[in-house]
């Protein structure tokens, strides 16, 4: 029995008995290094009794006995494996031996995972069991029916897999054909994968299969509905279904009114059901960090200095009421030194002053004052445009292409120039005032620079806040850091083994995040070639990544149809948001850090309250994947761009006002979304035939959009 062997090997390793471990490995032909789960000592005792006390029944335990050596210490006496049936088992043995029990944890090893399907009932009765439960749920009261209907999909999948695993292929086929049409439309893609698993051999190594088996499907049900279900299954003695409910489902029971069909539909649809309520309980510091105060000598006359001093004063009350950056410490902000952030350089301070000047001339947006939109259309992009980014000051735009190139354009009259060669630099007077201008080589000036280096399509690009660096990530599994001074590649970060779908710089620079097909997101620092954090938990590709404005958190969207929020400090997942019915492709934090907007292939834009861990809005209008989301600089307007060739503007102030975030709503997820989101829609702007892949608000609130013209 492989499980017993692995347990013994793990125990030998823990006890530093390497020689015995090697002999046993050779005998058992287990030469790989993978020992699966972990081992934990449960109890040791004096001679006479080895007690496995207060341990969860149903686990496999390895009992090990040692005998005292004549010299000193103990030698291995014997070992045996058993499954403990009651919580307080006692195991006796001969005297002069010390006993210990070690629990062998369940490993997400394919064969171990699948073996859970061994206990099975009569295959011919599966259809009867399922249709009996279906009939019971459909005839129950309306208030319970909506909640109990959530059971249909996970039970259907597990019963089908159980039939396939136990090689009842014809019964499995008949079961699938009879009931797959009853499942919700948003599970169609998963069911298509499931329908291809028709033999036991197909199940081994199938990722979707493993996900479903190792992560318990979460259902949130009121206590009344749960009691009703339990009573029905026990009366009917429908043990087959009851076993699946207990073994493979996690039922998150809450006290209070059952939820309505609309409330449930808003929250379900992910690969593993809803998020457990515990998952969204941790405290999140969603406030903004205090802006550093600095005096920068202004290069022009004094009157401009006075003017500059006056401008932020005028601007301050204007910005406070929309919760943007202010001089007061935000009570929800993380401590300033919670994570180490890079110090501001002189050039950063100058840029902040420029930013303040621009902000003073910023257009105040609202329903009566919509932004102008400037659309950058990539014409003749036969290389296949796959990613776009625009610098914060809107001076440069970058495109990532399927032909593996990265192209950088200047969108101001100022051309892109490289630094001079080393020989030419040695001739420059280093003390001159315009040394930064002199080091640039005029001969290299051009509107476009092409960066070569990747060996596959470029799926993500991101400029650093100081505009000195550019990140790009690719199908080749690497993230590259390019210098915008020399337009050369400085570093290739290798950590992902598969395509990297997205990458983004922190708003403070230095840190960046990447996410890919290997289902994890990684946090990097530009001066480390290994990742600082690995965020693992998604059940499918990490398709998009975003830093929170205070840089202490990272949001990731995934093809498992969930959004997770990770704490940069310790790598923990602090929020799981479910509700989208397709892979997530865009994320945007509001400027005040309180809210998150997400877009997916289902064409919906969902709004989330980060502090309470709740969905607070749903914006319907797009008819295709939402690839781009961006809040205006003060957070009054949310812009969304989609594959349906439109840009839509939404009233963010109205969407977030008068939110019901009382304790009851937070505890049960009884969210009440407005029936119609059309009153939040401020405008729809169509392109001729250009899907929108990127949106960006300039510092003065002009909206820039970008996409490649498609001739079909």
TrEMBL record:
Gene3D superfamilies reported for this sequence: TFIID subunit TAF5, NTD2 domain (1.25.40.500), YVTN repeat-like/Quinoprotein amine dehydrogenase (2.130.10.10)
Domain TFIID subunit TAF5 NTD2: 121-249
SUPFAM superfamilies for this protein: Taf5 N-terminal domain-like, WD40 repeat-like
Record-level GO cellular component terms: transcription factor TFIID complex
Alphabetized InterPro entries for the sequence: LisH, TFIID_NTD2, TFIID_NTD2_sf, WD40/YVTN_repeat-like_dom_sf, WD40_PAC1, WD40_repeat_CS, WD40_repeat_dom_sf, WD40_rpt
Keyword list, A-Z: Nucleus, Repeat, Transcription, Transcription regulation, WD repeat
Protein name as catalogued: Transcription initiation factor TFIID subunit 5
